[in-house]
Please model this.
Amino acid sequence: MTDLLQHAFNGLVNGSFYALLALGLAVIFGMLGVVNFAHGAFYMLGAFGAFILLNEAGVNFWVALLVVPLALGAVGMALERLLVRRLVALDPLYNFLLTFGLTLILQDLLRMKYGSQPQPYPQPAGLRGTVDLGLFDFPAYQVFVLVFSVLVSVGAWLLLARTRVGMIIRAATERPELTRAMGIDVGRWISPVFGFGIALAALSGVLAAPMRAVSPLMGADLIILVFAVVVIGGLGSIFGSVAAGFLIGMLQALGNVYVPGLATTSVFILMAVVLLWRPAGLFGREETAV
Amino acid sequence: MSPLLSVQCINASYGEAQVLRDVSLDVAAGEVVTLVGRNGAGKTTLLRCLMGLHRPTAGTVTLDGADITGLPAHRRARRGLGLVPDDRGIFASLSVEENLRLPPGISDSAWSMDRVYESFPVLKERRKFPGTKLSGGEQQMLAIARVLRMGARLLLCDEPTEGLSPVLVRQIGDILRDVKAAGVTVLLVEQNVRFASTVADRHYLLAQGRVAQTLDNTEVKEREHELLEYLGI
Amino acid sequence: MRRNLIPAISTLAVVSLLAACGGGAGGPSGGGGKISDDKIVLGVINDQTGIYSELSGPNAVKAVQMAVDDFKAKHGDDAVSKNIEVIVADHQNKPEVANTKAQEMYDRQKADAIFDVPTSSAALAVAGQAAAKKKLYFNITAATTALTGDKCNKYTFHYAYDTYMLANGTGTTVTEAGAKNWYIVYPDYAFGQDMEKSFSTAVEQAGGKVVGKKSSEFPNTSGDFSSQLLQAPAAKPDVLGAMHAGGELVNLVKQYNQFNLKDKGIGLSVGLMFITDIHSLGPDALAGTKFTDAWYWNFDQQNREWADKFKEKTGSRPSFAHAGNYSAAMNYLEAVQAAGTDASDDVVKNLEGKEINDFFLRNGKIRAEDHRVIHDVYLAEVKPKSEVKEDYDYEKIVTTIPADKAFKPVSESTCKMG
Model:
């Protein structure tokens, strides 16, 4: 039983990354209708950002955790203004291809500079070792990742559910045209929302640096799985993406123990089942489906 | 006196299909004016052009003497245009109260929440509900209350009585009369000419994208049968 | 707009596949009397941009070019040919690509010998082409013992290392040093399965026991190995044997450290490690870990001199694969020089049974029976950061495993030279 709980807990830690990535992806998709393939690349840039700051400027993890998402969020806003915006009126496939191409460019730039070998990133001071969770010990850093991700998710939820900005984002996600007719300059919010989604990807990248291999391909491996998470959670559903993220992390971890070899496949099986059973995803609203 | 809203020779099309041809009309401040016409006559398209949600191919729209033809929708809203769309346009992901609070107040004439709740007590009761959990009539009230809360000077109402019971239609009529009494101007798209004649001052009959006739209330009453037949009701 | 996501994701899958299949660099083409086509062509097939591009990759090509330049400088006007070319192909670690590239190199680009080829399945494909075309192949970076076993052939030589040598070096030594109970984690594909078997055999022969083993999906998209690691303590092992390579190894070791398995009395032993992996993790993450190395740049003055030249050309320190590529290319050219021709059969005759001592091959010998190139190998230990004096100064050589003990004895070889 303790074993089971321990594995489930471990799954939640992995789910943290899925949740944060899926949340950003869902916000961007909801507001812009853009499937941002470059999300994985920004996750990778987040991890590299932390690595580069540490090695070039001696900037520690805690500062990187704040600075890197802000900086990459700004890059995201610029990207939206300079490129994504021009393609929004066309078939969504155009922006999908744009962000896919961008991913390849970013990966190769990093590969030219740093090679494909993973780069070293130490555990942040203060979070080395393990903590006693009562039933079992768990690495302090992993516990931090989970707690931090839950806080960020709750924070994002409060922002969306309780603030005026959140209300505008929800309205604009649902009916952009009508929201404009209500006197709201929806265009003004698009860049910040895109930047916010990118910042979340960067944030999970920084979080990943001390526990995952920091390499140019780290995001490409992960992004397909995160797409599955978003589909399972319900496209554009903020709560759904976060819940599905944690759920799938757990499913994968338990799968690894009890049906090794099927752990990743099971995610896609679940996706297929969910799509057949509830085409709008577990938490999506039916009317937003086909 | 120059009219509050003046539409000059508006042309609009969806792809190849031309929907509006040289439509011109005026609405004076304080007036309630209806647009009557069959389905597909171009009524809703005209409202969308006025609101800035559809780009006309030619023509100008003037509000209070200022040319607003090139303005985006949100700036038109801030100048006093309030849209009540044909599907009521209630946001499902927002509560009733959030639906009311969404539009920014644009002038001194913006209704306070208290005033809204006083006039529409049912909305106060349901303020925590998701917007789409309301009945059709309540949604209609919400849609109208929302633009009043914004402080719109000119309501663009697209078939507010469609699908409502006679009791509710009467209630909407009362609301529109109250609105008018409060000095708000209304441009009303309506197929129910009998209802229209009870609230409106003048009527434009739209046919195949053109203004076919301008009628006043007495003419409407006299020619009600002819009009109903024409409208296919 | 929402309904477009599903087709978009399908498109994504197709596009990723297409991207994965594209690319691949062809080298300049060439043609090879006594010297065929009047030139000697050395081909390098390896991973130019992917997960194995650091440990061999473009720098392995530079190492082969260094060997060509040094050979020319050494023999001057007496060189058997002044026209020596190096050509390259990227196989993206895919056996079918390696097979096509090898065929192309031997047939159209007149390659006389191919070098390197990481990824065992790809190496076996190239060995098959070498046998069919009767041209030489020197494997350096692939680990499978099949190249000198069931799948051996007259034209293929295996340099540097193999799974037997790794398991024998690390598995035996660590077990004999007292870590009797092993928990082995391995990636679920040919290399990992091969490593797991070799290590299990070596551990048991040394009197130890494999108390648990756990595979991980390959590739491991989530980058997470905690499931495998969490299950280890229950089996009460003395040592965790990690059989992963490259980036996966880096991830695994990070998580091993985070779960504090060391404090729970579970040591870490790594099956295959390149110096580039230590560089990635930082030496502290691996401090004290023992592994078998085929060659270490900072072992002695001779190695260091070569490593300095390598650094001039590439800006970094060589892995054993880089040094192995140089040595293989140099010894091939010397054999051509000695034979006076690049005709494959004559060169093979010159190489077979040859005893060689160079900076890479210490007490080296090319076994005629199975074409295993044997030499001294090293049991190394990763230094703690406090002892690291310069970049890449990561290893302390614990013992030298003599050439005749390091590799699978000929008596056990299943190779039948045709």
User: Anything to note?
Assistant: Chain C touches chain A through 55 residues (CB under 8 Å).
